[in-house]
RNA sequence: GGCCCGGUAGUUCAGUCGGUUUAGAAUGCCGCCCUGUCACGGCGGAGAUCAUGGGUUCAAGUCCCAUCCGGGUCGCCA
């Protein structure tokens, strides 16, 4: 094996251009591809900047060097010294940025050999993701993955610049925190120095950043890792990164404007996308009623429409009982799809049932008249009225769900997205931002039979709703807001409670007695008695944002070392069992249920 | 925890109704040849725990059950 001694890299592979012709260059990198023509060999050399073609001509170089070139294989690490030469007209490769030139090798050094990789180191591969994760260091060698990671760096840098320019301080907060069982499940860390006691990894730096406001830092931000021990999704990892913000003496509008300007700037500077501000703002009620979602994908229409008034008072039991118990009958209109196959309709029924609806009906306005499972319960005039009210034309399809408000929203909201996908209505190049505002303060947990904070219990209710905290928690709205991009929640925040009395009332509303509240959040409530400024903030999901900017379907593609759906790292083999000694030091004993123990042994 | 999809050469897949070759193809890999390729080309070759365990059957990659792993999703994610 050779070394780099006496040889100094002068250029990166991808940066060489026609203007460099004639200069002597030394490039280093990995062998991407070797094309051996016998007496003439081409080797595509790759580093993080791109790919350049190097040429080895048997007639024009020493036998030893040519022999070395013949021995090159994929992913060998080499250094090449040679002249940059212009390619002849007929050999220009317009597909690569350096396609007008090539390097004629004068000296070749093999710095390291490489085993044949288990998959191609190139873009657009179709390989089992587990294999990519097992060999993540090779997966990350692929140009598109490098691009994602570089984009991530660039965005983080732009964010830091932006907030620095606006007077924000980046302040670190602890990773070893107090467990607060409210909210997501905590990752716990046993304390050796405090036997039997545990830290929790932060679900977010929420309390610390509010305390920084009490301290008077006024404008805080941090790009920070957060941990939640919940089930994973394509856009959820057990550890993820937030851009965390908190400010004092501001109102909601200040925060929204600051954030949309930030987003507009990073989209412009990182991926050259011009975003119009201000963003559309929509109340939570509107979002739910019109799109059936608190994070509506605004890239297409197909809004939910209420047809309750046209179908009420009939002999059709399903609609009647729903309407009589305060529910709704709503539909979406799928343009030009009245000829949907019956089989697909049956599939859609199952689909909405997965989202809590009991069933789904439909109206097909076909050339041959109306087809609908509830046709016999209504007159032709009723169907004409529905047609007019929904703006349906002959050839259009209505999909109808009847149930309680939130069930209708959930089912039709999901159905809307599914039909948008199936009908090809979603333009992947569109970027539709909006703010969803006026979230409910609480939602009712059927499981726990109590009201729970929708955002978190430090969120301020709207002033005018405070009287209802006790009497009617369901009607209390909060000063909370989410930023949504293309149907993905990329950020959310709120103005906070800064008055101890109000805080106590809210704790009470979510069933936290003063004693329990003090035990869990006492240090915070104590701090709040020493002069707390009005404050509020927001947290942005950096991974999701980069995923959308990079147009990837999963945040795993923008995280260097992500975990699988079962939260394991298949490369490092984490999590793993640990030595009995380690456990003893921590005063921890493992107690698996019988079934799991048996599986572990096998 | 529920539901859906998947697991066959290094990789991506095919494998029909359970039965005709030695489980097939492409690509990658190895060897030989080749002086303008860039998906280089030509000839030859090697390469399989059909995820694991059990069952049905004269016969299982194929059917059944269980388990494991991966992906999607519902619940969950203050």
Task: Explain what you see.
By secondary structure, the protein is α+β, with helices and mostly antiparallel strands. Helix content is 30%, strand content 23%. It has 18 helices and 22 strands. The strands form five sheets. Strands 6-9-10-22-21-20-17-11 form an eight-stranded mixed β-sheet, with helices on both faces. A five-stranded mixed barrel has the order 1-2-3-5-4. A five-stranded antiparallel β-sheet has the order 12-13-16-14-15. Strand 1 and strand 2 (40-47) form a beta hairpin. Helix 4 (143-165) crosses helix 6 (252-271), helix 4 crosses helix 16 and helix 7 crosses helix 12. The longest helix is centred in the N-terminal third of the chain and has 23 residues, at 143-165. The radius of gyration is 30 Å and the shape is globular. The model has no long low-confidence stretch (mean pLDDT 94).
* Contiguous uncertain segments of 5+ residues: none
Query: How many β-strand runs?
Result: 22
Strand content is 15-25%
Helix content, binned percent:
25-40%
Class based on secondary structure composition and strand pairing: alpha+beta
Q: What is the residue-averaged pLDDT?
A: 94
Shape: globular
Helices and strands in order, then pairings?
Elements: E1 24-36, E2 40-47, E3 50-57, H1 63-70, E4 77-86, E5 101-112, H2 129-134, H3 136-139, H4 143-165, E6 169-170, E7 188-190, E8 198-200, H5 206-215, E9 219-227, E10 239-248, H6 252-271, E11 280-283, H7 284-291, E12 305-306, H8 308-311, H9 317-324, E13 328-334, H10 342-353, E14 361-366, E15 369-371, H11 380-390, E16 397-403, H12 405-422, E17 433-437, E18 442-445, E19 450-453, H13 468-471, E20 480-485, E21 488-495, H14 500-509, H15 514-527, E22 535-541, H16 542-549, H17 580-586, H18 594-601
Parallel strand pairs: 3-5, 6-9, 11-17
Antiparallel strand pairs: 1-2, 1-4, 2-3, 4-5, 7-8, 9-10, 10-22, 12-13, 13-16, 14-15, 14-16, 17-20, 18-19, 20-21, 21-22
Helix pairs in contact: 4-6, 4-16, 7-12, 10-12
The protein binds one RNA strand of 78 nucleotides through strand 1, strand 2, strand 3 and helix 2.
